Each structure stands twice: as structure tokens, then as C-alpha cells.
Amino acid sequence: MRHLLDAHTLIWALDDPSRLGASARAVLENPAIELTVSVGTIWELSIKTSLKKLSLSLPYRQWVERALADLGITVAPITLEFTERQTALPFHHRDPFDRLLVAQCLVETIPIVSADAMFDQYGVTRLWN
């Protein structure tokens, strides 16, 4: 089964694993689970890094390559189905990157690994604690 990682989950998994919830840690350590991250999340990290709103333990490109390799993560593209589904979402969450993740989870019927309880309002399965 595939699981989608939220941006902070990806960051903490590499730079501060002690911040991960028990369920999140179990997902990351289970070799039977395919971990995926949206290319939108990679884009979000690059924007926040360039704006100096995010500091990573390595330069951006090195950090992303290491995170993907060390955690065995695949990068999912943004599809027309995701963007279309996003247009119909209620505005519980204003963050466009998080709304994209909600849409991806709904379209693909996959859980998200995130501490953000706002995802619960959309009816997606969220794993953390």
C-alpha cells in the first residue's frame, strides 16, 4: 500500500526523527509500505528554502536527493485529476500545497502521514500518533 508524506513528515524523518508520531514512525520503518511524496511538496520545500523560511540540514538539492534515497521515496506527479478534485474541495485549509495533498489522497484513496489534523476535515485517512 502507498502512503503520502506531508512536507513536515519528510523534513522530520530526515532531520529530527524524534518529532515523528508513533504511527508515522511505524509507516516509515515498514518496508511493505510504499512511501510517496508529491512533486508539489518538493516544490513547496524549494520555495520555503529560497525565501529563507525553511532551513534544511544540507543544501536543498543534496537534502532532497538524500531524503528520497534514504527513505526510498517515489515522487508523484501532479495530475489533472488531482487539480480537478482540488477545485471542488471546501476551504477548510487555505494552503494550496496541502489542498493538493488532500486531493491526491482522495483521488488515489491513500492515507497521508501528517501531524496536521486539518486533513481530517476532508475525510482522508491520516496517520500520525
Write the SSE topology.
Elements: E1 2-5, H1 7-15, H2 22-29, E2 34-38, H3 39-50, H4 60-71, E3 73-76, H5 80-87, H6 96-108, E4 112-113, E5 126-127
Parallel strand pairs: 1-2, 1-4, 2-3, 4-5
Helix pairs in contact: 5-6
Task: Produce a short descriptive summary.
The protein is α/β, with parallel strands linked by helices and about 130 residues long.
The largest sheet, given as strand count, sense and whether it forms a barrel, is: 5 strands, parallel
Per DSSP E runs of 2 or more residues, the count of β-strands stands at 5
CATH level 1 class label: Alpha Beta
The helix/strand series, from N terminus to C terminus, equals EHHEHHEHHEE
Q: What is the first-to-last residue Cα distance? A: 19 Å
What is the percent of helical residues? 40-55%
Helical run tally? 6
Strand order across the largest sheet = 3-2-1-4-5
- The fold-level CATH name is Rossmann fold
What percentage of amino acids are in beta strands?
A: 5-15%
Principal-axes geometry comes out as: globular
Which CATH architecture would you pick? 3-Layer(aba) Sandwich
Report low-confidence residues grouped into runs of 5 or more. Answer: none
- Based on secondary structure, the structural category is alpha/beta
CATH homologous superfamily classification: 5'-nuclease
Tell me the radius of gyration.
14 Å
